[in-house]
Structure formats: C-alpha cells, structure tokens
Fold this protein.
Amino acid sequence: MIRQLAIRVPGKGLHEITDLVADVVHQAGVREGLCTVFIQHTSASLTIQENADPSARRDLEAWLDRLVPERDALFTHTAEGPDDMPSHIKAALTATTLGIPILDGRLALGTWQGIYVWEHRRHAGTRRVVVHVGG
C-alpha cells in the first residue's frame, strides 16, 4: 500500500506525523513488514526523535542552526531568501527516508519515539510525504 500525505507545516521546526503514518499502517492491515516514509522535498527532512520533552527538539533545531547558519557569504543559491541554501544543507545532513519495522500491525517505535517532518524553511507550507507499507 502506498499513500501520499499532504502535511501542512506552520514553518520551521519539528512537526510530528506519527499518528498519520500509523493510520496508513493500520489501513494496510499488515501484521509484520516494513513502513517506508519518504519526503518529496529538498529543504525539509524526516527524523525519528523524542516525542515526550519538547526541549530535546528545540535543542536539535538550535544545534543545527549553529552548524548551518543563514547568510553565509559563500552561499550563491539565495534567490528564495537567506534560509534557502541552509535548508538544503540541513536536509542533506539529515534524512529524506525512514524505514520503520511493523510488528503485530503497529509501528515498532520505542516508547519515546515519534516520526517528524523537520521543516528547515521559515515559511508555512505543505510538504508531501509518501508512506509505503509492505509485508
């Protein structure tokens, strides 16, 4: 089963999509298999991260912003604003695809794990995420 999800993001940050992906797995009816999640963009990414304490996500965002700051004088790809090229670099350093095992019809995530779209741009928008469930 393959589904394309349209994820509305309010802007920069980690936006949890665990329930949306779990719903696709449930609809597929697969008891054991693999769920592959893929984002169809080059300035946003995917991650599995702690879903209990939001300070962990804020610290991750702050760390990546320090690693790849905006307005680097060496960037030439700046037509869409100062967050454009840093967003591409951040997406290249993180992940565009996740693979999550399915056990007993459910995503085999740990207790504190959630699936996130990591939006690297400041503006709101819609991101396309493809979920494939195989068993």
